[in-house]
Amino acid sequence: MSAVLPAAKSGEVGAQRIAFVVMLAFFILGPLVMYPVFLMKVMCFALFAAAFNLLIGFVGLLSFGHAMFLGTAGYVCAHAAKVWGFTPELAILAGAAAAAALGLVTGLLAIRRQGIYFAMITLALAQMIFFLCLQAPFTGGEDGIQAVPRGRLLGLLDLSNVWNMYGTVLVIFVAGFLLIYRTVHSPFGQVLKAIRENEARTTSLGYNTTRYKLMAFVLSAALSGVAGATNALVFQLAALNSVHWSMSGEVVLMNLVGGLGTIFGPVVGAFVVLAMENYLATLGFWITIVQGAIFVLCVLAFRRGIVGELGRLMRKPI
Amino acid sequence: MTEIFGIPVQAFMGQLLIGLINGSFYALLSLGLAVIFGLLNIINFTHGAQYMMGAFVAWFLLNKTGMGYWWALVVAPIAVGIVGVIIERTMLKQLYKLDHLYGLLLTFGLALIIQGLFRNEYGSSGLPYSIPSQLTGGQNLGFMFLPNYRAWVIVFSLVVCFSTWFVIEKTKLGSYLRAATENPELVRAFGINVPRMITVTYGFGVGLAALAGVMAAPIYSVNPLMGENLIIVVFAVVVIGGMGSIMGSIVTGFGLGIIEGLTKVFYPEASNTVIFIVMAIVLAIRPAGLFGTQK
């Protein structure tokens, strides 16, 4: 997938700084006009989508099974908080660690093939995780893990208060977002982009491309895990829909709508897709039809996505 | 009663039969995917939805026009194939110059639309479709009871698979197809209409999916979601076999059906996941797939 992101130049950094401030202001002031729980969901999924974008946008790998990291981390976090009595920060870390470990195993298998095969392999592995979650004793099957306690952050801050929870999610989201931004613009990120453009040539320059791809995959899995674990705490629920293939499709849709390979695209895409779901919730199954139609429309006529088009108009990648 | 590995023969054979039935569908569907992929370089995510549409066409024919199973075997593949041709002409055609992943995303979107529309209209409980009168009943083989319809499905899908293999590998038409898979520009230079060949190939692959759908209708009920999870299993089958060889798709399809059936006998908890586990093992040992060549 071709994406436009050459090495950052001074003007582009300026545009990206402005965009970052706008984003931050949006999530700080957002609760004045929107439900805080909805915005927390947006932030969790924005982080999930940005972690996914790290692979598709900057390494050129389309994972069609990213829900397995989101869902697994959600289950582990919920179990740790509810059964083992972990504090929220440890529960989230446990979820992220589980997702990273799963990312290591599935990544080792999936990066052995490229392109379409990579997509099919990740989808199939995620389906296997779905069945494991359906059958495993600790996940609660169809019911999921309900009434997960939010607990006290570091033993001090009571997260059952919505504003404490909101602030925590905001900090987690911004930290994750900046980590991805930093990764993309680091020497490591440059190698990833080189692999996307021409893997054979990158190998010939002496880089072990397999190891780079695996590291990117594990990082993406771990950050998806942070998103999934946080989401489980917000909704106090870990359920099967977060490991289902339709969730993997949804994160692809968020990136497609926002703009593949852009910095802010996943955030915009997550907001648009979730807002649409909220708005169309009463329509039942029409939601999948609308989502499918957006897929088709984006692929045929709007491949740059919202942020990609904006960046093109401004002549600066954002 | 005789036993095999401590399992009664009848239970063993029953699961083996179910495995062969599932294998027939895996083989037919992965064959269609492989044929489409060979020429279009697109992995057709709509395949599961098109399989479901085949079953629905059979149901429509029976309930609205009174045309039975045998008519459906002919009409459904053609009808769904025509829908496929329209999709190829209007949408997929525009994507050939782009990254192949866009084809996957487009067909995924189409699958969501088609499955959503059918679910809106018919719910998700499924509609009954009875076995054609000529194939009801069964044979007592002494060690097991073999329903006629199931025997028919296995035999007929083998016939379809091997006919497809024969056409592609042994006829002149097939040689054009294989040549166009290798080098479309050169084949065009010889005066062969490659774009039309691509359209017909997609229509044919989709028709195979619809044919599988008609055959499945009397076994599983006609259900808007019948293709949804199946297609993911078929993807795993395709990864295991590798899409390079037609015979490979057929052998892998049946083989994995049997493995899945046997897993139901010996360790039922893993029957949902065994194909994915096989896929992981194959990837670890032979990443290109059993019959594939890594490009």
Report on the architecture of this protein:
The complex is a heterodimer of chains A (318) and B (295). Chain A has helices spanning 10-29, 36-58, 67-82, 88-110, 115-135, 162-184, 187-197, 199-204, 209-235, 245-258, 265-279, 286-301, 305-314, and strands spanning 152-153, 157-158. In chain A, helix 4 runs antiparallel to helix 9 (209-235), helix 6 packs antiparallel against helix 9 and helix 10 (245-258) packs parallel to helix 13. Chain A starts with 9 loop residues before the first helix and ends with a helix. Chain A has one domain (20-243). Chain A is mostly helical and 318 residues long. In chain A, strands 1-2 form a two-stranded antiparallel sheet. Helix content of chain A is 71%, strand content 1%. Chain A is globular. Chain B has a domain at 23-227. The longest helix of chain B has 32 residues, at 9-40. In chain B, strand 3 and strand 4 (145-147) form a beta hairpin. Chain B has 295 residues and is mainly alpha-helical. Chain B is built from eleven helices and four strands; from the N terminus they run E-E-H-H-H-H-E-E-H-H-H-H-H-H-H. In chain B, helix 1 runs antiparallel to helix 8 (194-216), helix 2 (47-65) crosses helix 3 (69-90) and helix 2 (47-65) packs parallel to helix 4. Chain B has helices at 9-40, 47-65, 69-90, 101-122, 148-170, 172-182, 184-189, 194-216, 230-241, 246-266, 274-285, and strands spanning 3-4, 7-8, 138-140, 145-147. In chain B, the strands form two sheets. Chain B has a two-stranded antiparallel ribbon. Chain B has a two-stranded antiparallel sheet with strand order 3-4. The A-B interface holds A 1-2, 62, 64, 109-110, 112-113, 115-117, 119-121, 123-125, 127-128, 131-132, 134-135, 245, 249, 252, 256, 284-289, 291-296, 298-300, 303 and B 37, 43, 91, 94-95, 98-102, 104-106, 108-117, 119-120, 229, 232-233, 235-236, 238-239, 269, 272-273, 276-277, 279-280, 283-284, 287.
